[in-house]
Write the structure tokens for this entry.
Amino acid sequence: MFCSNVYDYVNVLGTALDATATRNEIISNNIANVNTPEYKRKDIRFETELKHAFAHSGEKTVDARVRHLELGALEPEVYTDYADLSYRYDGNNVDIDTENAILAKNQIKYNGLQASVNKEFSNLKMVMK
């Protein structure tokens, strides 16, 4: 059977898009709880997991690393950020300005990933013509 690995990059980009969408939901939840006593901000770990997977793949080229990447192992991990830190007396550690800045950064990242997926499909379309 012929295996071309045509969608390797699309699959990795799609996984990154999913993680960015999840982060967007978490940030929105942080913003919604800005006035909730004892609420601690949440975030996800994804980029570090992706970097770790690339660094420990044992492959020499990026194409080979992407081809052999275990996407199932790249599940974003939700964690409580700065659990011992509080900005206010009520125990909450959400700073609305920081959350809005992180949300804007995350949206830019999402748009860039989406453009990359679109470019990959454009390249595939061009090759098929």
Notes: DSSP finds four helices and two strands in the chain. Helices lie at 8-32, 47-55, 62-67, 96-128.
